[in-house]
Amino acid sequence: MAVHKHSKKRDAILECVRSTASHPTAEWVYAQLKPQIPDLSLGTVYRNLAMFKQEGLIGSMGVVDGMERFERNTEPHTHFICHQCSAVIDVMDVDPPTHLGSQVGCGSVQDCILTFTGLCNQCVSNSAKA
Amino acid sequence: MAVHKHSKKRDAILECVRSTASHPTAEWVYAQLKPQIPDLSLGTVYRNLAMFKQEGLIGSMGVVDGMERFERNTEPHTHFICHQCSAVIDVMDVDPPTHLGSQVGCGSVQDCILTFTGLCNQCVSNSAKA
DNA sequence: TTAGAAAATAATAAAAATTCTTATTTTTAT
DNA sequence: ATAAAAATAAGAATTTTTATTATTTTCTAA
């Protein structure tokens, strides 16, 4: 029933994504694990993240600043993107208006994606100081 | 008052984006114009699209399948993305729920982006035939 | 209208993110 | 333990986009 084999590296990559609320890039995951697993290869991170995503073990909220952002939360939910520091934050209190899908005039709608952008709290603070 | 100079190529690039309801990539614009302007360079298309976008003469709805999608409509509006053929279609009848921005708990919200995904009519037809 | 400064362009190199290739190593079922 | 199957490292290759530089075009104003 196992859909794939396990390896120390593979497990570490999955655990890395699952243990952060941030929305990491492949490069970030690689940088996190490299100290503990010195012979880890970036290609392995890319390959496994793609596999986990396809199997639904992790999610991806899309590309921000040219880099794909993975996430542990695989349920549809709203995001906030800071266009200063590119932080991606889950907005659990505001649900995407899925019901509006019936009003979309084209094609057959499957998903509804809601995203807010602006300055995150940290960048707001930094702006005030500057 | 002119914010930039004009050239035949520059004007053609802007007109190309303004005359289509599709959400073209730089490559697409280049392919459209190349037959009429054989010495057009792809770098020129990229450079001018970036400039038009910065000046607010055109918009960009983001990156789909690794390619930035420009658009003539610079007003905030909803999009539909076909995840089969990557077509991007404006959804003018459903407005992004901007008012929900006040319920977002993090940072200072500036924009609200609403996107639907699914199969466009053409891909639905093609699926039925197959 | 024409000279000359400023900006735009073509061609090409370079950068950045991601994917592919291949030889080797690890995992897992037997 | 063994052998087949899958995973990995290293590095090459691809893809999209940006930067560099020599040349050409645009625009200003004399």
What separation lies between the terminal Cα atoms of chain A? 57 Å
* Rg of chain A, alpha carbons: 17 Å
Of all chain pairs, the largest interface belongs to: A-B, 36 and 36 residues
Strands ordered across the widest β-sheet of chain A: 4-3-5
By secondary-structure content and strand pairing, the structural class of chain A works out as: alpha+beta
Looking at this protein, list some descriptive labels.
homodimer, 130 residues, alpha+beta, two-stranded antiparallel ribbon, 4 helices, flat, DNA-binding
Give a short synopsis of this structure.
Two copies of one chain form a homodimer. Chain A has about 130 residues and is an alpha+beta fold. The first copy, chain A, contains four helices and five strands.
Describe, in plain words, how this protein is organized in 3D.
By secondary structure, chain A is of the alpha+beta class. The model of chain A has no long low-confidence stretch (mean pLDDT 95). In chain A, the strands form two sheets. Chain A has a three-stranded mixed β-sheet. A two-stranded antiparallel ribbon of chain A has the order 1-2. The first copy, chain A, has helices spanning 8-18, 26-33, 42-55, 121-129; strands at residues 59-64, 67-71, 78-82, 88-91, 108-119. The first copy, chain A, contains four helices and five strands, in the order αααβββββα. Chain A is flat, with a radius of gyration of 17 Å. Chains A and B meet through β3, β5 and α4 of A and β3, β5 and α4 of B. The first copy, chain A, binds a DNA duplex (30 and 30 nucleotides) through residues 2, 4-10, 25-27, 39-44, 46-48, 50, 66-68.
